[in-house]
Amino acid sequence: MGVLYGGRIGIAGLGFVVLPLLSHHMPTDQFGLATTILSLQSLAIVLDLGLAVLLASELPAMDCATTRRALVRRSEHQLIITYLGIAAVAAMLSFGGILPASLPMVLMTAVALLVVVWQNIIAVAMIARQQFFASTVSLFLSLLLRQGASLAFVTQYGGTLGAFVAGQVLGAAIILATSRFTFINHGQKDGDMPAVADPKRERPQTPNVGINVTVMVYTIAGACALQLDKILLSAMGSPSRTGPYFLASMVSLVPITFLATPISQFVQPKLIAALVHGRIDIAGRWIVRLTMAITVLAVVPGLVLGMLTPWIIPLWLRDPASRDAVIGYTQVLMPGASLGALGLVPAIVLIARRDYPALATISAVLSIGVLAATALLARGGDIHGICIAYAIYHTLATMCLWVRTWWVEPAFANAFFIGRRIANHPAPPVDRD
Protein backbone atom coordinates (compact mmCIF):
# COMPACT_ATOMS: atom_id res chain seq x y z
CA MET A 1 0.00 0.00 0.00
CA GLY A 2 2.98 2.27 0.55
CA VAL A 3 3.79 1.99 -3.15
CA LEU A 4 0.26 3.07 -4.08
CA TYR A 5 0.45 6.01 -1.70
CA GLY A 6 3.85 7.02 -3.03
CA GLY A 7 2.53 6.99 -6.57
CA ARG A 8 -0.51 9.06 -5.66
CA ILE A 9 1.62 11.62 -3.83
CA GLY A 10 3.90 11.85 -6.85
CA ILE A 11 0.95 12.28 -9.19
CA ALA A 12 -0.55 14.97 -6.97
CA GLY A 13 2.79 16.74 -6.72
CA LEU A 14 3.18 16.80 -10.49
CA GLY A 15 -0.27 18.29 -10.92
CA PHE A 16 0.31 20.98 -8.34
CA VAL A 17 3.66 21.91 -9.92
CA VAL A 18 2.88 21.71 -13.63
CA LEU A 19 -0.58 23.33 -13.77
CA PRO A 20 0.57 26.72 -12.44
CA LEU A 21 3.49 26.61 -14.91
CA LEU A 22 1.11 25.89 -17.79
CA SER A 23 -1.12 28.72 -16.61
CA HIS A 24 1.91 31.02 -16.69
CA HIS A 25 3.06 30.05 -20.19
CA MET A 26 -0.36 29.85 -21.89
CA PRO A 27 -2.83 32.65 -22.64
CA THR A 28 -5.83 32.65 -20.30
CA ASP A 29 -8.28 31.36 -22.91
CA GLN A 30 -5.87 28.66 -24.10
CA PHE A 31 -5.22 27.48 -20.53
CA GLY A 32 -8.97 27.35 -19.94
CA LEU A 33 -9.34 25.12 -23.00
CA ALA A 34 -6.40 23.00 -21.81
CA THR A 35 -8.11 22.42 -18.44
CA THR A 36 -11.25 21.47 -20.39
CA ILE A 37 -9.24 18.82 -22.27
CA LEU A 38 -7.83 17.56 -18.97
CA SER A 39 -11.41 17.26 -17.73
CA LEU A 40 -12.30 15.37 -20.91
CA GLN A 41 -9.44 12.97 -20.20
CA SER A 42 -10.71 12.31 -16.69
CA LEU A 43 -14.22 11.90 -18.10
CA ALA A 44 -13.03 9.52 -20.81
CA ILE A 45 -11.16 7.35 -18.30
CA VAL A 46 -14.47 6.50 -16.66
CA LEU A 47 -16.45 6.43 -19.92
CA ASP A 48 -14.80 3.18 -20.97
CA LEU A 49 -17.94 1.07 -21.45
CA GLY A 50 -17.44 -0.29 -17.94
CA LEU A 51 -14.25 -2.08 -18.97
CA ALA A 52 -12.28 -0.95 -15.91
CA VAL A 53 -15.08 -2.10 -13.61
CA LEU A 54 -15.22 -5.44 -15.42
CA LEU A 55 -11.48 -6.03 -15.13
CA ALA A 56 -11.39 -4.94 -11.48
CA SER A 57 -14.18 -7.36 -10.56
CA GLU A 58 -13.20 -10.35 -12.72
CA LEU A 59 -9.40 -10.52 -12.73
CA PRO A 60 -8.96 -11.08 -8.95
CA ALA A 61 -10.93 -14.35 -9.20
CA MET A 62 -9.04 -15.66 -12.27
CA ASP A 63 -6.29 -18.25 -11.87
CA CYS A 64 -5.22 -18.78 -15.47
CA ALA A 65 -2.80 -16.23 -16.96
CA THR A 66 -3.95 -17.01 -20.52
CA THR A 67 -7.55 -16.33 -19.59
CA ARG A 68 -6.59 -13.03 -17.98
CA ARG A 69 -4.67 -11.88 -21.04
CA ALA A 70 -7.57 -12.86 -23.29
CA LEU A 71 -9.97 -10.78 -21.21
CA VAL A 72 -7.66 -7.75 -21.34
CA ARG A 73 -7.20 -8.08 -25.10
CA ARG A 74 -10.94 -8.27 -25.71
CA SER A 75 -11.33 -5.15 -23.58
CA GLU A 76 -8.70 -3.38 -25.67
CA HIS A 77 -10.42 -4.31 -28.91
CA GLN A 78 -13.73 -2.98 -27.61
CA LEU A 79 -12.04 0.28 -26.59
CA ILE A 80 -10.30 0.79 -29.94
CA ILE A 81 -13.50 0.17 -31.91
CA THR A 82 -15.35 2.66 -29.71
CA TYR A 83 -12.79 5.41 -30.22
CA LEU A 84 -12.61 4.83 -33.96
CA GLY A 85 -16.32 5.56 -34.02
CA ILE A 86 -15.91 8.62 -31.80
CA ALA A 87 -13.11 9.97 -34.00
CA ALA A 88 -15.18 9.44 -37.15
CA VAL A 89 -18.20 11.27 -35.73
CA ALA A 90 -16.05 14.12 -34.37
CA ALA A 91 -14.27 14.45 -37.72
CA MET A 92 -17.59 14.76 -39.57
CA LEU A 93 -18.81 17.38 -37.09
CA SER A 94 -15.59 19.34 -37.52
CA PHE A 95 -15.68 19.07 -41.31
CA GLY A 96 -19.28 20.27 -41.30
CA GLY A 97 -18.47 23.26 -39.12
CA ILE A 98 -20.65 22.06 -36.23
CA LEU A 99 -17.69 21.43 -33.94
CA PRO A 100 -15.64 24.65 -33.51
CA ALA A 101 -12.24 22.99 -33.91
CA SER A 102 -9.96 22.09 -36.80
CA LEU A 103 -9.92 18.54 -38.12
CA PRO A 104 -6.29 17.88 -37.04
CA MET A 105 -7.06 19.16 -33.52
CA VAL A 106 -10.15 16.95 -33.28
CA LEU A 107 -8.29 13.83 -34.39
CA MET A 108 -5.31 14.57 -32.15
CA THR A 109 -7.63 15.06 -29.17
CA ALA A 110 -9.36 11.76 -29.93
CA VAL A 111 -6.00 9.97 -29.99
CA ALA A 112 -5.02 11.65 -26.71
CA LEU A 113 -8.20 10.42 -25.07
CA LEU A 114 -7.74 6.89 -26.43
CA VAL A 115 -4.17 6.42 -25.19
CA VAL A 116 -4.96 7.87 -21.74
CA VAL A 117 -7.98 5.57 -21.30
CA TRP A 118 -6.06 2.58 -22.65
CA GLN A 119 -3.25 3.25 -20.19
CA ASN A 120 -5.78 3.36 -17.35
CA ILE A 121 -7.26 0.01 -18.44
CA ILE A 122 -3.84 -1.61 -18.21
CA ALA A 123 -3.19 0.01 -14.82
CA VAL A 124 -6.51 -1.30 -13.47
CA ALA A 125 -5.64 -4.79 -14.71
CA MET A 126 -2.28 -4.59 -12.92
CA ILE A 127 -3.91 -3.53 -9.65
CA ALA A 128 -6.51 -6.29 -9.94
CA ARG A 129 -3.65 -8.80 -10.08
CA GLN A 130 -1.91 -7.02 -7.15
CA GLN A 131 0.94 -5.75 -9.34
CA PHE A 132 0.88 -2.54 -7.32
CA PHE A 133 4.42 -1.39 -8.02
CA ALA A 134 4.16 -1.79 -11.80
CA SER A 135 0.78 -0.05 -11.87
CA THR A 136 1.98 2.85 -9.74
CA VAL A 137 5.13 3.37 -11.78
CA SER A 138 3.23 3.29 -15.07
CA LEU A 139 0.63 5.83 -13.91
CA PHE A 140 3.27 8.16 -12.47
CA LEU A 141 5.51 7.99 -15.53
CA SER A 142 2.54 8.46 -17.84
CA LEU A 143 1.54 11.68 -16.09
CA LEU A 144 5.17 12.81 -15.83
CA LEU A 145 5.80 12.38 -19.56
CA ARG A 146 2.43 13.82 -20.55
CA GLN A 147 2.73 16.95 -18.45
CA GLY A 148 6.45 17.32 -19.06
CA ALA A 149 6.08 17.00 -22.82
CA SER A 150 3.11 19.38 -22.85
CA LEU A 151 5.01 21.97 -20.81
CA ALA A 152 8.07 21.65 -23.06
CA PHE A 153 5.98 21.98 -26.25
CA VAL A 154 3.99 24.90 -24.83
CA THR A 155 7.11 26.86 -23.87
CA GLN A 156 8.73 26.05 -27.22
CA TYR A 157 5.80 26.78 -29.54
CA GLY A 158 4.14 29.81 -28.04
CA GLY A 159 1.57 28.39 -25.62
CA THR A 160 -0.79 26.95 -28.21
CA LEU A 161 -3.44 24.36 -27.45
CA GLY A 162 -2.11 22.12 -30.22
CA ALA A 163 1.30 21.95 -28.54
CA PHE A 164 -0.36 20.99 -25.27
CA VAL A 165 -2.37 18.14 -26.84
CA ALA A 166 0.64 16.86 -28.80
CA GLY A 167 2.57 16.53 -25.54
CA GLN A 168 -0.29 14.58 -23.98
CA VAL A 169 -0.34 12.11 -26.89
CA LEU A 170 3.41 11.55 -26.93
CA GLY A 171 3.81 11.01 -23.20
CA ALA A 172 0.84 8.64 -22.84
CA ALA A 173 1.74 6.57 -25.91
CA ILE A 174 5.28 5.84 -24.69
CA ILE A 175 4.19 4.56 -21.28
CA LEU A 176 1.17 2.70 -22.70
CA ALA A 177 3.43 0.60 -24.93
CA THR A 178 5.78 -0.17 -22.03
CA SER A 179 3.15 -1.00 -19.40
CA ARG A 180 1.09 -3.12 -21.77
CA PHE A 181 4.14 -5.20 -22.68
CA THR A 182 4.91 -5.65 -18.97
CA PHE A 183 1.41 -6.84 -18.08
CA ILE A 184 0.86 -9.13 -21.07
CA ASN A 185 4.17 -10.91 -20.50
CA HIS A 186 4.03 -11.00 -16.69
CA GLY A 187 1.78 -14.06 -16.50
CA GLN A 188 4.29 -16.19 -18.39
CA LYS A 189 6.77 -15.87 -15.52
CA ASP A 190 4.63 -15.70 -12.38
CA GLY A 191 3.99 -19.41 -12.01
CA ASP A 192 0.29 -19.19 -12.83
CA MET A 193 -1.71 -22.12 -14.03
CA PRO A 194 -1.09 -23.23 -17.62
CA ALA A 195 -3.64 -22.50 -20.27
CA VAL A 196 -5.10 -26.01 -20.02
CA ALA A 197 -7.47 -25.78 -17.06
CA ASP A 198 -10.69 -27.28 -15.89
CA PRO A 199 -13.28 -25.84 -18.31
CA LYS A 200 -16.00 -26.05 -15.69
CA ARG A 201 -13.94 -23.80 -13.48
CA GLU A 202 -12.74 -21.39 -16.12
CA ARG A 203 -15.99 -20.84 -18.02
CA PRO A 204 -17.69 -18.67 -15.41
CA GLN A 205 -14.44 -16.75 -14.95
CA THR A 206 -14.27 -15.55 -18.56
CA PRO A 207 -17.19 -13.23 -19.17
CA ASN A 208 -17.71 -11.87 -22.63
CA VAL A 209 -16.59 -8.27 -23.02
CA GLY A 210 -19.68 -6.48 -24.18
CA ILE A 211 -21.91 -3.61 -23.31
CA ASN A 212 -23.51 -4.05 -19.92
CA VAL A 213 -26.12 -1.32 -19.74
CA THR A 214 -26.15 -0.97 -15.96
CA VAL A 215 -22.35 -0.85 -15.73
CA MET A 216 -22.29 1.77 -18.48
CA VAL A 217 -24.93 3.88 -16.73
CA TYR A 218 -23.03 3.64 -13.44
CA THR A 219 -19.67 4.65 -14.91
CA ILE A 220 -21.02 7.27 -17.32
CA ALA A 221 -23.18 8.98 -14.72
CA GLY A 222 -20.38 9.15 -12.17
CA ALA A 223 -17.89 10.42 -14.73
CA CYS A 224 -20.29 13.07 -16.00
CA ALA A 225 -20.97 14.31 -12.48
CA LEU A 226 -17.27 14.74 -11.70
CA GLN A 227 -16.09 16.15 -15.03
CA LEU A 228 -18.93 17.77 -16.97
CA ASP A 229 -19.16 20.62 -14.46
CA LYS A 230 -15.98 22.18 -15.89
CA ILE A 231 -17.13 21.60 -19.45
CA LEU A 232 -20.56 23.14 -18.75
CA LEU A 233 -18.94 26.11 -17.06
CA SER A 234 -16.57 26.59 -19.99
CA ALA A 235 -19.38 26.31 -22.55
CA MET A 236 -21.91 28.53 -20.76
CA GLY A 237 -19.44 31.07 -19.46
CA SER A 238 -15.92 32.19 -20.23
CA PRO A 239 -13.08 29.64 -20.45
CA SER A 240 -11.05 32.01 -18.31
CA ARG A 241 -13.41 31.34 -15.39
CA THR A 242 -12.93 27.59 -15.67
CA GLY A 243 -9.29 27.69 -14.54
CA PRO A 244 -9.82 28.68 -10.86
CA TYR A 245 -12.75 26.29 -10.48
CA PHE A 246 -10.72 23.47 -12.04
CA LEU A 247 -7.86 24.09 -9.61
CA ALA A 248 -10.25 24.19 -6.63
CA SER A 249 -11.91 20.94 -7.76
CA MET A 250 -8.51 19.27 -8.04
CA VAL A 251 -7.57 20.32 -4.51
CA SER A 252 -10.94 19.29 -3.07
CA LEU A 253 -10.68 15.80 -4.56
CA VAL A 254 -7.37 15.11 -2.78
CA PRO A 255 -9.14 13.07 -0.01
CA ILE A 256 -10.80 10.80 -2.59
CA THR A 257 -8.29 10.62 -5.41
CA PHE A 258 -4.96 10.75 -3.63
CA LEU A 259 -5.64 9.63 -0.04
CA ALA A 260 -8.51 7.12 -0.13
CA THR A 261 -8.07 5.55 -3.58
CA PRO A 262 -4.69 3.88 -2.86
CA ILE A 263 -6.19 2.23 0.22
CA SER A 264 -9.22 0.97 -1.69
CA GLN A 265 -7.04 -0.27 -4.56
CA PHE A 266 -4.94 -2.28 -2.12
CA VAL A 267 -7.95 -3.83 -0.34
CA GLN A 268 -10.30 -4.31 -3.31
CA PRO A 269 -8.79 -7.54 -4.77
CA LYS A 270 -8.73 -9.16 -1.33
CA LEU A 271 -12.24 -8.04 -0.39
CA ILE A 272 -13.72 -9.12 -3.71
CA ALA A 273 -12.06 -12.54 -3.48
CA ALA A 274 -13.44 -13.03 0.05
CA LEU A 275 -16.97 -12.07 -0.96
CA VAL A 276 -16.90 -14.19 -4.12
CA HIS A 277 -15.86 -17.26 -2.11
CA GLY A 278 -18.44 -16.61 0.60
CA ARG A 279 -15.91 -15.84 3.36
CA ILE A 280 -18.10 -13.37 5.26
CA ASP A 281 -15.80 -13.32 8.31
CA ILE A 282 -12.75 -12.36 6.27
CA ALA A 283 -14.75 -9.86 4.19
CA GLY A 284 -16.08 -8.25 7.35
CA ARG A 285 -12.59 -7.74 8.72
CA TRP A 286 -11.43 -6.14 5.49
CA ILE A 287 -14.48 -3.86 5.47
CA VAL A 288 -13.73 -2.63 9.00
CA ARG A 289 -10.05 -2.11 8.23
CA LEU A 290 -10.85 -0.24 5.03
CA THR A 291 -13.38 2.02 6.74
CA MET A 292 -11.05 2.86 9.60
CA ALA A 293 -8.11 3.47 7.29
CA ILE A 294 -10.07 5.81 5.00
CA THR A 295 -11.46 7.70 7.99
CA VAL A 296 -8.03 8.23 9.57
CA LEU A 297 -5.97 8.71 6.41
CA ALA A 298 -8.43 10.50 4.11
CA VAL A 299 -11.52 11.98 5.78
CA VAL A 300 -9.82 13.64 8.77
CA PRO A 301 -6.85 14.98 6.76
CA GLY A 302 -9.27 16.29 4.13
CA LEU A 303 -11.27 18.22 6.70
CA VAL A 304 -8.07 19.63 8.19
CA LEU A 305 -6.82 20.59 4.72
CA GLY A 306 -10.07 22.45 4.10
CA MET A 307 -9.62 24.49 7.26
CA LEU A 308 -6.01 25.31 6.37
CA THR A 309 -6.81 26.31 2.78
CA PRO A 310 -6.40 30.08 3.33
CA TRP A 311 -2.80 29.48 4.41
CA ILE A 312 -1.88 26.66 1.99
CA ILE A 313 -3.24 27.99 -1.33
CA PRO A 314 -1.15 31.22 -1.24
CA LEU A 315 1.99 29.07 -1.05
CA TRP A 316 0.93 27.41 -4.30
CA LEU A 317 -0.68 30.21 -6.35
CA ARG A 318 0.79 33.69 -6.63
CA ASP A 319 -1.89 35.41 -8.72
CA PRO A 320 -4.15 37.23 -6.20
CA ALA A 321 -7.27 37.09 -8.39
CA SER A 322 -7.24 33.34 -9.04
CA ARG A 323 -5.83 32.61 -5.57
CA ASP A 324 -8.75 34.17 -3.72
CA ALA A 325 -11.26 32.41 -5.96
CA VAL A 326 -9.58 29.02 -5.49
CA ILE A 327 -9.56 29.47 -1.69
CA GLY A 328 -13.27 30.29 -1.60
CA TYR A 329 -14.30 27.42 -3.85
CA THR A 330 -12.10 24.88 -2.04
CA GLN A 331 -13.49 25.75 1.39
CA VAL A 332 -16.99 24.94 0.16
CA LEU A 333 -16.08 21.77 -1.75
CA MET A 334 -13.70 20.12 0.70
CA PRO A 335 -16.08 18.94 3.49
CA GLY A 336 -18.41 17.10 1.10
CA ALA A 337 -15.52 15.59 -0.87
CA SER A 338 -13.86 14.39 2.33
CA LEU A 339 -17.01 12.56 3.42
CA GLY A 340 -17.33 11.24 -0.13
CA ALA A 341 -14.14 9.22 0.38
CA LEU A 342 -16.11 6.87 2.64
CA GLY A 343 -18.32 5.99 -0.32
CA LEU A 344 -15.49 3.86 -1.73
CA VAL A 345 -16.13 1.21 0.95
CA PRO A 346 -19.72 0.26 -0.03
CA ALA A 347 -18.96 0.81 -3.72
CA ILE A 348 -16.36 -1.98 -3.66
CA VAL A 349 -18.81 -4.34 -1.93
CA LEU A 350 -21.59 -3.60 -4.43
CA ILE A 351 -19.21 -4.13 -7.35
CA ALA A 352 -18.14 -7.46 -5.88
CA ARG A 353 -21.80 -8.48 -5.60
CA ARG A 354 -22.47 -7.17 -9.13
CA ASP A 355 -25.26 -5.01 -7.79
CA TYR A 356 -24.88 -2.76 -10.82
CA PRO A 357 -28.58 -1.82 -11.05
CA ALA A 358 -28.41 -0.18 -7.63
CA LEU A 359 -25.12 1.51 -8.41
CA ALA A 360 -26.51 2.76 -11.72
CA THR A 361 -29.70 4.08 -10.15
CA ILE A 362 -27.93 5.96 -7.36
CA SER A 363 -25.30 7.35 -9.71
CA ALA A 364 -27.75 8.39 -12.42
CA VAL A 365 -30.27 10.12 -10.14
CA LEU A 366 -27.64 12.09 -8.23
CA SER A 367 -25.66 12.95 -11.36
CA ILE A 368 -28.70 14.27 -13.22
CA GLY A 369 -29.58 16.39 -10.21
CA VAL A 370 -26.15 17.92 -9.70
CA LEU A 371 -25.56 18.53 -13.43
CA ALA A 372 -28.94 20.20 -13.81
CA ALA A 373 -28.10 22.46 -10.88
CA THR A 374 -24.67 23.13 -12.40
CA ALA A 375 -26.15 24.12 -15.76
CA LEU A 376 -28.59 26.56 -14.15
CA LEU A 377 -25.95 28.06 -11.88
CA ALA A 378 -23.31 28.25 -14.63
CA ARG A 379 -25.70 30.21 -16.84
CA GLY A 380 -25.96 32.79 -14.09
CA GLY A 381 -22.25 32.70 -13.30
CA ASP A 382 -22.79 31.44 -9.74
CA ILE A 383 -19.70 29.27 -9.26
CA HIS A 384 -20.06 29.40 -5.48
CA GLY A 385 -23.49 27.80 -5.87
CA ILE A 386 -21.97 25.05 -8.03
CA CYS A 387 -19.52 24.30 -5.21
CA ILE A 388 -22.40 23.97 -2.73
CA ALA A 389 -24.23 21.63 -5.12
CA TYR A 390 -21.19 19.35 -5.37
CA ALA A 391 -20.63 19.28 -1.62
CA ILE A 392 -24.22 18.06 -1.26
CA TYR A 393 -23.73 15.57 -4.11
CA HIS A 394 -20.74 13.86 -2.45
CA THR A 395 -22.55 13.63 0.89
CA LEU A 396 -25.76 12.17 -0.55
CA ALA A 397 -23.86 9.67 -2.72
CA THR A 398 -22.00 8.33 0.31
CA MET A 399 -25.17 8.01 2.39
CA CYS A 400 -27.08 6.19 -0.37
CA LEU A 401 -24.26 3.72 -1.00
CA TRP A 402 -23.93 2.87 2.69
CA VAL A 403 -27.67 2.31 3.12
CA ARG A 404 -27.87 0.08 0.03
CA THR A 405 -24.84 -2.02 0.99
CA TRP A 406 -26.01 -2.51 4.57
CA TRP A 407 -29.32 -3.77 3.18
CA VAL A 408 -27.99 -6.37 0.71
CA GLU A 409 -24.66 -7.59 2.11
CA PRO A 410 -24.61 -9.49 5.44
CA ALA A 411 -20.82 -9.14 5.73
CA PHE A 412 -21.22 -5.38 5.63
CA ALA A 413 -23.90 -5.29 8.34
CA ASN A 414 -22.09 -7.85 10.47
CA ALA A 415 -18.82 -5.92 10.25
CA PHE A 416 -20.29 -2.99 12.15
CA PHE A 417 -22.42 -5.02 14.57
CA ILE A 418 -25.65 -3.75 13.05
CA GLY A 419 -28.41 -5.58 11.30
CA ARG A 420 -27.73 -8.75 13.28
CA ARG A 421 -30.97 -10.30 12.08
CA ILE A 422 -29.78 -10.01 8.50
CA ALA A 423 -26.18 -10.89 9.25
CA ASN A 424 -27.11 -14.18 10.92
CA HIS A 425 -28.47 -15.49 7.63
CA PRO A 426 -26.18 -16.85 4.92
CA ALA A 427 -25.20 -14.37 2.24
CA PRO A 428 -26.86 -14.80 -1.16
CA PRO A 429 -24.33 -16.32 -3.56
CA VAL A 430 -22.42 -13.99 -5.83
CA ASP A 431 -23.23 -15.05 -9.38
CA ARG A 432 -20.05 -14.89 -11.48
CA ASP A 433 -21.71 -16.19 -14.67
Descriptive notes:
- It is built from 19 helices and no strands.
- With 433 residues, the protein is mostly helical.
- Residues 189-211 and 418-430 have low confidence and may be disordered.
Q: Termini separation (Å)? A: 31 Å
| General shape | globular
Mean pLDDT: 79
Computed CA radius of gyration, to the nearest angstrom: 22 Å
Biggest sheet architecture: none
Number of strands: 0
Percent of sequence in beta strands = under 5%
Topology record:
Layout: H1 2-25, H2 28-46, H3 51-58, H4 65-95, H5 103-128, H6 132-156, H7 161-186, H8 199-202, H9 213-236, H10 239-252, H11 254-276, H12 280-307, H13 309-316, H14 320-340, H15 344-352, H16 356-379, H17 383-408, H18 410-415, H19 420-423
